[in-house]
């Protein structure tokens, strides 16, 4: 008896997903990172695969268990993730950017472990390139989905990001509730309107986001 039936809504579609956290190395053993677990991104990759998509997963550091997908690549830094995405984006139908990519990385990464000395230490950082914005600027871009994890003014910031990055769909959520948690509560924002989904586990949220995506692709 089949108890779970996932309709193959995304059969024939190629989807590239970024997930997890990047870590910007200060020296060979230390880096600047964030508390993304990779759970929401991995749930999207798993459900998209169940829906019949050919999934390419480019992921950074994650504590969640990586699902079986068509292609998976580890990219530990924002720069490595940028390179990997650009290398695999060419014939993708959809790009889902959910990785928590560092906005800045150290100007220099020490070759040897940094030794402690003074009472205070200043580290200079430089801006990283925006993967999602640059994919959206490609001549023939895939359908781009962004995520906005915010701690305040969630919807306003998400709407603004959708405009600034020029992407059709953004998923807004409350960062402090979503990061690391098994559950999520999100609002989908696109040209057709704003849809607040009920709080649920990340697999259910992934299924709803991907069903909505399917409705926008067709
Ligand atoms: N993103 C990306 N590359 C970056 C930074 C962000 O692809 N270098 C993507 C994220 O994966 C996410 C979206 O852009 O889908 C929004 O990321 P977020 O950090 O919320 O927004 P930023 O544009 O970086 O703005 P800020 O952090 O200042 O709020
Ligand atoms: Ca950011």
UniProtKB/TrEMBL annotation:
<comment type="similarity">
    <text>In the C-terminal section; belongs to the PPC synthetase family.</text>
</comment>
<keyword id="KW-0285">Flavoprotein</keyword>
<comment type="function">
    <text>Catalyzes two sequential steps in the biosynthesis of coenzyme A. In the first step cysteine is conjugated to 4'-phosphopantothenate to form 4-phosphopantothenoylcysteine. In the second step the latter compound is decarboxylated to form 4'-phosphopantotheine.</text>
</comment>
<feature type="binding site">
    <location>
        <position position="113"/>
    </location>
    <ligand>
        <name>CTP</name>
    </ligand>
</feature>
<keyword id="KW-0456">Lyase</keyword>
<protein>
    <recommendedName>
        <fullName>Coenzyme A biosynthesis bifunctional protein CoaBC</fullName>
        <ecNumber>4.1.1.36</ecNumber>
        <ecNumber>6.3.2.5</ecNumber>
    </recommendedName>
</protein>
<feature type="binding site">
    <location>
        <position position="147"/>
    </location>
    <ligand>
        <name>CTP</name>
    </ligand>
</feature>
<keyword id="KW-0460">Magnesium</keyword>
<comment type="pathway">
    <text>Cofactor biosynthesis; coenzyme A biosynthesis; CoA from (R)-pantothenate: step 2/5.</text>
</comment>
<comment type="similarity">
    <text>In the N-terminal section; belongs to the HFCD (homo-oligomeric flavin containing Cys decarboxylase) superfamily.</text>
</comment>
<dbReference type="GO" id="GO:0004632">
    <property type="term" value="F:phosphopantothenate--cysteine ligase activity"/>
</dbReference>
<feature type="region of interest" description="Phosphopantothenate--cysteine ligase">
    <location>
        <begin position="15"/>
        <end position="218"/>
    </location>
</feature>
<comment type="function">
    <text>Catalyzes two steps in the biosynthesis of coenzyme A. In the first step cysteine is conjugated to 4'-phosphopantothenate to form 4-phosphopantothenoylcysteine, in the latter compound is decarboxylated to form 4'-phosphopantotheine.</text>
</comment>
<keyword id="KW-0210">Decarboxylase</keyword>
<feature type="binding site">
    <location>
        <position position="103"/>
    </location>
    <ligand>
        <name>CTP</name>
    </ligand>
</feature>
<feature type="binding site">
    <location>
        <position position="165"/>
    </location>
    <ligand>
        <name>CTP</name>
    </ligand>
</feature>
<comment type="pathway">
    <text>Cofactor biosynthesis; coenzyme A biosynthesis; CoA from (R)-pantothenate: step 3/5.</text>
</comment>
<feature type="domain" description="DNA/pantothenate metabolism flavoprotein C-terminal">
    <location>
        <begin position="10"/>
        <end position="214"/>
    </location>
</feature>
<keyword id="KW-0436">Ligase</keyword>
<keyword id="KW-0288">FMN</keyword>
<feature type="binding site">
    <location>
        <position position="161"/>
    </location>
    <ligand>
        <name>CTP</name>
    </ligand>
</feature>
<dbReference type="GO" id="GO:0004633">
    <property type="term" value="F:phosphopantothenoylcysteine decarboxylase activity"/>
</dbReference>
<keyword id="KW-0511">Multifunctional enzyme</keyword>
<keyword id="KW-0479">Metal-binding</keyword>
């Amino acid at each position: 008896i089949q108890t779970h039936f996932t309709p193959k809504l995304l059969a024939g579609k190629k989807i590239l997903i970024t997930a997890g956290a990047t870590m910007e190395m200060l020296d060979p053993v230390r880096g600047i990172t964030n508390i993304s677990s990779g759970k929401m991104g991995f749930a999207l990759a798993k459900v998209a695969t169940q829906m019949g998509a050919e999934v390419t997963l480019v992921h950074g550091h994650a504590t969640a268990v990586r699902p079986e997908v068509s292609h998976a690549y580890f990219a530990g830094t924002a720069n490595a993730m940028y390179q990997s995405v650009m290398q695999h984006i060419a014939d993708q139908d959809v790009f889902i950017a959910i990785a928590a990519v560092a906005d800045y990385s150290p100007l220099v990464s020490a070759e040897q472990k940094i030794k402690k000395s003074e009472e205070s230490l200043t580290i200079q950082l430089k801006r990283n390139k925006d993967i999602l914005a640059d994919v959206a600027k490609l001549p023939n871009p895939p359908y781009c989905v962004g995520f906005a994890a915010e701690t305040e003014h969630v919807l306003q910031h998400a709407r603004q990001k959708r405009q600034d990055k020029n992407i059709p769909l953004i998923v807004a959520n409350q960062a402090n509730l979503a990061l690391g948690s098994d559950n999520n509560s999100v609002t989908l924002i696109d040209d057709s309107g704003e849809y607040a989904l009920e709080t649920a586990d990340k697999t259910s949220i992934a299924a709803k986001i991907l069903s909505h995506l399917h409705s926008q692709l067709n």
